[in-house]
Amino acid sequence: MPPVKAYLQLFRPDAALIAFATYLVGAVLANGLDLMDVAAAFLITGFSTNFCYSFNSWADWETDAVNKPHRPIPSGKLTPRQALNYSMFLLAASLVYPFFLVRPGWILGAYLLLPLLGASYSGKPFSLKLRPPASVFAVSGGLVIPIIVGYYSNVQGAAPDLRAFFLALFVYCLAIIPLKDIEDERGDGDWNLYAKYGARLPYYALAGLLIDAALLLALPAPPLLKAGLLLLFLLTGLMIRWHLARPDQMGFLYRRNIHIVEAGGALFLGWQVLYNQGVISLSLMGGLP
């Protein structure tokens, strides 16, 4: 029997961290964050998001043998059948636990949408991965669902309207997700966006960031949240420009952008937790001083 570690390696650590942290960010923005929120973050990460990535690892194991031979299936740590069975267990759990966590309604639908996006992205023969830009929309949706359900599961009474904030996060994902194809070009097929657009792809990402910034400035959202997102856009844009001047480093661009996102999420989470605990007096949900 394969060790538990081999199954966990089907899931990417950065994806797990982002899903877990963004749910908690959503919760603290709604003045939440208790043990139930931590449990919910664990469930959405450990089952729903885990299914999306583990199922994709199974679906892509032949491609990974070229791009990433160290992954659990190409390296022989797991057989394809073992990875598929594990993914189906995660899918079943992902479709059951939300009914015990939230009441029927659109939040429940968002929980259920997450594994369905994962199945539609990787499931053959109609895999969305093979059909960009639908693939980019599916991945981006999966990335923003945790923070949205984290917020609306905790919000009470009259709360700030964060639809523009969530929309801006979604558009940010649309701009950045295609950059992952740079590191995956070898072994992918015609659906790889870097193979299709080449050196133009990072410029498309920069254009997406500019559009997103204009959208965020035009729509209502708490000023400090706006400022935080605009700083994220700026740092991401500078990272892209730095890599454009160093083509030999281009394969690391997406991963380094993920590190920027992780740092930004940690800052958002830490700031609002300190505010909720009364340590600081300025809330991300308030205005600029």
From TrEMBL:
The chain crosses the membrane at residues 15-33, 134-152, 164-182, 203-221, 227-245. This is UbiA prenyltransferase. It comes from Desulfatibacillum aliphaticivorans. GO terms for cellular component: membrane. It comes from the Bacteria. InterPro entries: Prenyltransferase_related, UbiA_prenyltransferase, UbiA_sf. GO terms for molecular function: transferase activity, transferring alkyl or aryl (other than methyl) groups. Pfam families: UbiA. It is found in: Membrane. It is a multi-pass membrane protein. Keywords: Cell membrane, Membrane, Transmembrane, Transmembrane helix.
